[in-house]
Amino acid sequence: MYLKYDVKKYFNAIKALDSTKVLDFGCNHANFLNEKFTGEYIGLDIDSRIIKNNKKTYPQHQWIHYNKYNYQYNCEYSTTDDWPDIPTGIETAVAFSVFTHTTFDEFSYTTNKLKLHIAPGGDILATFFSSIDQDSIYKILSHRQEYFSGHENYIVEKILNKDVVYLCVNTISNQILIFDNMKDLPKFSNHMYFLTFYNDEWLSTTLQGQVVDVTDNFTNIMSTQKCLRLSIPH
Asked: Which of 23, 71, 99, 206 has the fewest CB atoms within 10 Å, i.e. is most exposed?
């Protein structure tokens, strides 16, 4: 299911982005461009089919394919995991609902690599699911009622306040699994759907960033995700 939402509106609630150079990491179907954008836009995604379609729809912008394995969205393709050729001088790299579906190791690795492309004074703005807000967790689970209906109380009890926790469900058998560590977990097939939750303080301390909460500005899926802001010194 492809959800349409105004990604630029979410990040503009944190930082003015028009007339700047933006990298949309995990751009999907270019939701960022649902609203007019006056700056320089670069979209990157691990799905080559999406990048191909975006090039046709928005030929005026730059598109980059990152041939990267992902437990959910790119797990049956031949991958090299080579870091893509991303321009430097990016003023803001945004990642909406990307690290909500990756391991923490990938979150840390990717943001550290992205820092090499950010201009002094620039930012990485990456959204995440918080484990400390009970109401928010229930709201997140409600977006996938077909997977989690009837199990919400059990899931919230297991997730609440954990530093990092992975919620997985087999979309065929509906078996629900919750992990604190996925290092030893076999690579999934496309039948596995998973979400990652973080304790705000733990995440901000570990990655040395600032948690920004603009969820009250929204009522749809954008109301479920807080943002970690990683700023590059001048």
From this structure: 206
Q: Which of 143, 149, 234 is nearest to 195 (CA)?
A: 143
Q: Which residue blocks in 46-169 are alpha helix, DSSP H?
A: 48-57, 104-114, 134-142, 145-148, 152-159
This prediction's pTM: 0.92
The DSSP symbol for 132 reads: S
Bridge partners (DSSP) listed for residue 228: 126, 211
C-alpha to C-alpha distance for 103 and 180, rounded to whole angstroms: 10
Are the beta carbons of 204 and 224 closer than 8 angstroms? Answer: no
- CA torsion sign for 28, 32, 33, 35 is positive
Distance CA 62, CA 230 (A): 24
**Each residue of 181-196: pLDDT tens digit?**
876 555 555 677 889 9
β-strand partners of 64: 44
Which tokens go with 49?
């089919």
- Give me the amino acid identity at 156: V
Cα–Cα distances in Å, from 90 out to 22, 54, 121, 152? 6, 20, 10, 40
Q: How close are the terminal C-alpha atoms of the chain, in Å?
A: 41
